[in-house]
Amino acid sequence: MHLVIIGGSDAGIAAALRARELSKDVRITVLLADDYPNYSICGLPYLIGGQTPDPSKLAHRTTFPDIDVRLRHRVTAIDPAGKSVSIERPGDTTELRYDRLIVATGANPVRPDIPGADLPGAFVLHTIDDGLAVLDAVRRHRAGKAVIIGAGYIGIEMAEALQQRGMHVTLLSRSDEVMPGVFSEIGAMIRERLTTEGVEVVTQAGVERIEQGMVVEQRLVVFTTDGRRRPADLVILATGVRPATDLARDAGIALGEGGAIAVSDTMATSLPDIFAAGDCAVTHHRLHGKPTWISLGTIAHKQGRVAGENAIGGSRTFHGIVGTQSLKLYDLVIARTGLSDIEAREEGYEPLTVEIGAWDHKSYYPGATQIGVWITGDVKTGRLLGVQMVGRAGAEVSKRLDIVAAGLFHGIDVDALNDLDLSYTPPLSSPWDPVQRAAQDWSHAAARPG
User: Fold this and answer.
1) Which CATH number belongs to the domain containing residue 279 in this structure?
2) Among the four residues 93, 185, 367, 378, which has the most C-beta atoms within 10 Å?
């Protein structure tokens, strides 16, 4: 059997490795459009910020035993009837036949539909080459000005990275607050932290256009809807990504939510012998059971592993997601999982959210800091729906959230969090962990009349 995989990032390499683990006989070929197999795209802000100065350290692995990884092999078409793919490579074109195919083409960055978004000096950040281009611009404009359009995860991480490089950074958000996926109180904390470090944060700021400036080295000017002109030595377009599915669509593979490739829970597509995984494929949310699309490395690794196993004859299933994410900003950690109250209401739940503050460990032991916990449950059934947390680095915010993510995955009630046998020692926690304290407060609030 010849297994061909299009794409060599998280999902593609995970698929190849799993297939090789299970079979020594299958022939595995991975086709990459670039030179960077299995590199951590999530690490780009730390490359640019200087925490990881060597780009090669972003590679999850550098060897792929008994896997034919072909660099600079861009797939231009899939022929399902002939079971082959067309490839452009340096100097020529060719075709490659397959018995089973995995499409792991990932996602493409969105360049906003505004005049000037394609000017030199306006960067997206999605590939290693993107990161190296931004890093080169940063080095050429030390102590210069940067404007970031978009205040989601990437925009916020890049604000820190560029500020730490000595640039004057302006972060533009179209929403009322930064990071609109979290509760507004958490967004306000993020904005305050950025402002404290000298980042100019502008909310409710749409961008009308970007123009070439009249200064040396192609300086840009960003025009915003508040009538301001903001000069910039570089502009970061952090306005999201969309699934890279042109190849699949042109081959007749059915698409689903968000334009991503529709897949079963075995990662099979609508066409025989073709699977898909990662940022190009849909997933399903365990809290509402509907197909959804979200671009996360954690999902890509898991889906890739399932696709790799099933492409060589396995029967593994992918069990979906609960929407778990985290972010570190300076010494602040923000994490969320599940549904917010707004999202829960849209799915037909009757949500109640309770906020508490709790010490990360016993206050009599030095270094205790406060953690904020927002817990959401369904008052009709008591079902746990989601948690958002914020606290200082070192308070184990992200790992505490994983307790909730595990509970959500298995559909537990809010009150069931109190039954979990969690670890305790005064320097690290309390007899009742902050997650459990929040669950208790939620249960009391839900039991009150009215």
Assistant:
1) 3.50.50.60
2) 378
Q: Is residue 114 part of a domain?
A: no
Q: Give the Cα separation of 155 and 149 in Å (integer).
A: 7
Task: List the domain range (segments joined by +) for residue 352.
Answer: 325-447
- Closest C-alpha to 3, from 309, 257, 288: 309
Active site residues: 42
**345 and 379 share one domain:** yes
**292 lies in the same domain as 438:** no
Nearest by Cα to 177 from 143, 207, 152: 152
Residue 53's CB: how many other CB atoms inside 10 A? 11
Mark whether 215 and 298 lie in a shared domain: no
Is there a single domain that holds both residue 272 and residue 305? yes
Q: Are residues 247 and 231 in the same domain?
A: no
306 close to 316: Cβ distance less than 8 angstroms: yes
pTM score of the predicted model: 0.94
Quick one: what percent of the chain has pLDDT higher than 90? 95
Tell me, yes or no, whether 439 and 335 share the same domain.
yes
245-276 b/e with 16+ CB inside 10 Å = b?
bebbeebebebbbebbbbbeebbbbbbeebbb
Residues 346 and 400 placed together within one structural domain of the fold:
yes
384, two tokens: 């746990």
Count CB atoms within 10 A of the CB of residue 228.
12
pLDDT of 215 higher than 80: no
d(CA 281, CA 260): 5
Burial 340-349 (b: 16+ CB within 10 A, else e): bbebbeeeeb
Per-residue model confidence as pLDDT tens digits over 79-114: 999 999 999 998 899 999 999 999 999 999 999 999
Between CA 87 and CA 98 the distance in angstroms is 13
Instruction: Provide the number of structural domains found in the chain.
Output: 3
Q: What is d(CA 37, CA 252) in angstroms, rounded to the nearest whole number? A: 27
